[in-house]
Every structure is written in C-alpha cells, then in structure tokens.
Amino acid sequence: QVQLVESGGGLVQAGGSLRLSCAASGRTFSSHNMEWFRQAPGKEREFVAAIRWSDGSPGYGVSVKGRFTISRDNAKNTVYLQMNDLRPEDTAVYYCAANNAALRIAVRPQEVDYWGQGTQVTVSL
Hints:
Layout: E1 3-7, E2 10-13, E3 18-25, E4 32-39, E5 46-51, E6 58-60, E7 68-73, E8 78-83, E9 92-100, E10 114-115, E11 119-124
Parallel strand pairs: 2-11
Antiparallel strand pairs: 1-3, 3-8, 4-5, 4-9, 5-6, 7-8, 9-10, 9-11
C-alpha cells in the first residue's frame, strides 16, 4: 500500500514557476513508477510526467515537454514536478500517482494503482 500527499500548488502568473512535491508513505515506494496527471474543469484527466523506478528515466506529455521536469528522491520517498514557463492552460488540479514498477509507466488514469488527493495550480495572465 502506498499513500500519496501532494503539496506546492498555488497561484502564479504566466511565465512563472512552481514546484510540486509528492510525499509517499509505505515501504514499497521505491518499487513503484511515479507519475503526475492533471485535470482541468470539464476535461479528462491528462498524463503530465512519469519517472521509472528502474533507472529514473523520465517521460513527459507533449504539452509540457521542455517546460516541466520530474525527479524523485527515494531516500525521502518524494517525487517532484518542477514547472517552468507556466501558461494559463496549465491551470488544473495536479495529481500524484504510482503504479507497480513491474509494469510500464502509467500514461492513462486506468493504469494507475494509487492516487494522491490533488493540489490546485492556477496560472493567471
């Protein structure tokens, strides 16, 4: 069992930066791939970024590639999402997620094993 708690959301102007954190509890954190998804009002939950347990290699959604960076610290049981050059269209609730590392990274919500409660990110003009 893995419990996930996000923090770091807030209000930022376009072009600004935020760093989200996801603290995980449970002894199996280091054996899970970790992902970030987001969901804007009226839209489906969207894959943002992922980091593999096996080698720490990242993957990104097309809309954030080059602006967002995912990282993890296994010693702290924490995964981070550094978001730069934020745009109004990045406004959403951001969710931390985890899936079993024996599988490939989750890029669809139905592939996720565990979810955090979400943190709001709002980008103003």
